[in-house]
Every structure is written in C-alpha cells, then in structure tokens.
Write a structure and sequence with these properties.
The protein contains 9 helices and 6 strands; from the N terminus they run βααβββαβαβααααα. With 224 residues, the protein is of the alpha/beta class. The longest helix has 46 residues. This is TMV resistance protein N-like.
Length: 224
C-alpha cells in the first residue's frame, strides 16, 4: 500500500518506476490514506516504511517526530532517507543525534538515489516476510516435536502397566490424551470411549489409584 499524500508529492515518472518495479516482483500496488508512506504485507507480516525522497534541513523535526510516532504504531518500521550528497549525509547525521533517536528504533536506511531507495524498501519487506515464515515453520516444527515426544512418553508410561499393550496405549492417547485425563476417567468411561475390555479398564483404574496412593505417601514422608 502507498500513501496517497506521499504519492501526490512525487514526480509521476517515479510513481511509474515504483509501479513497474512492484509488478516485476509480483507485488500489487494499492493507494490508501495510510499513516506510513508504504505498508507491505509479506508472509503475514506488516512492514511499514517512511520514505524521505528529499532531505530538507529545514524540515528535519517533522521527519524524526513522525518516525517516533509511527514506531509506536508499527512493530516493524523502517525509514529510508535519500542522501545523494555528502552535505546532506552530514546534515542527516547531525540531526539524528540532535533529536536523540535510539539506534534501530526505528532503523534508518540512507540511500544515494530514490530508485535505489525503493529497491531497498522492497528487499527489506521481502526479507522480513521470509524471516517471519521461517520463524513460523520453526515454531510449528518445535510444537510437532513436543507433541510427538509427549505421545511417546504417554505410550511408554501406559505400556509399563502390566496387561496394557501398545494398541491399548494408543487408544487411550486418542481418547484421553494425557495421564491427567486418565486420572479423571472412570472405569465405565474408559470402556465406553475406547475398545478396552472391562478387565483392562479396571487394571488402569487400579494403577491410577496405586499411583495416587504412592504419591500421597511420598508427600507425607517429605513432611515428616
């Protein structure tokens, strides 16, 4: 998304460049009265940008005030600043420290021309999206591994009960899902919700009671 006010302040040829560059990189351009100059949605992550195409030493307060304000609105905000000359670069550095900006909050990206600046904006947005997707994949993988490990532990505990085999343990895992679930289930409930025989259900209930008794005894011993 592009800010309509920002668009109206740019030369039409630059807007055409942006439109063509986005289309070539499989992005769709929409115009909205948004608070940032650009907002990209990549990999489910919103990345906002302020794009200062003309550095004006007499208007620096507006730039830094806006950056601070938008940083509070967006979790991912970057400020791209076009600094084509050494004088403008020096002016930017002096102003950056004058207005006590915190490094990386937000991140400022100096460039030497506006085309390069926009290309960097797209690269940053894409990189943020890729990182987010990798983070999501890693989280899902970790959750899957944790789930598998939990199931393996459940099966191991259940099959340690005399008379309960691997099939019984899997049936219990599908219905109760945890040791805590078994602790709350009655013999009748186990028979109704699984293919366990009444005898095996009774074995599990007895095991549960024995475990609770052992736990209570251990707690009493620890208090004496």
């Amino acid at each position: 998304m592009m800010n309509t006010t920002w668009r109206d302040q740019q030369h039409p040829s630059f807007i055409n460049f942006i439109s063509s560059f986005l289309a070539a990189n499989c992005f769709r351009l929409n115009f909205f009265p948004i608070s940032a100059d650009f907002i990209f949605n990549c990999g489910g992550l919103s990345v906002a940008f302020i794009f200062v195409t003309k550095w004006d030493h007499g208007n620096v307060e507006t730039v830094f005030s806006r950056a601070k304000k938008l940083k509070a609105q967006f979790g991912h905000l970057y400020v791209t600043v076009n600094l084509p000359t050494r004088d403008k670069n020096d002016s930017f550095l002096c102003s950056y420290f004058k207005y006590e900006m915190q490094l990386g909050k937000p991140t400022f990206v100096p460039v030497q021309d506006i085309e390069m600046g926009f290309e960097n904006i797209v690269k940053i947005a894409h990189s943020c999206g890729v990182s987010k997707q990798q983070e999501v994949k890693s989280k899902l993988k970790a959750e899957k591994n944790q789930s598998v490990q939990g199931m393996e532990n459940f099966i191991r505990v259940m099959t340690s009960i005399p008379g309960i085999d691997n099939h019984d343990a899997h049936a219990l895992n599908q219905t109760t899902g945890s040791i805590e679930g078994i602790a709350k289930a009655s013999k009748e409930c186990l028979v109704e919700t699984t293919d366990l025989s009444a005898n095996k259900a009774e074995i599990i209930v007895k095991w549960r009671l024995d475990e609770n008794l052992q736990l209570n005894n251990d707690q009493r011993l620890s208090l004496t």
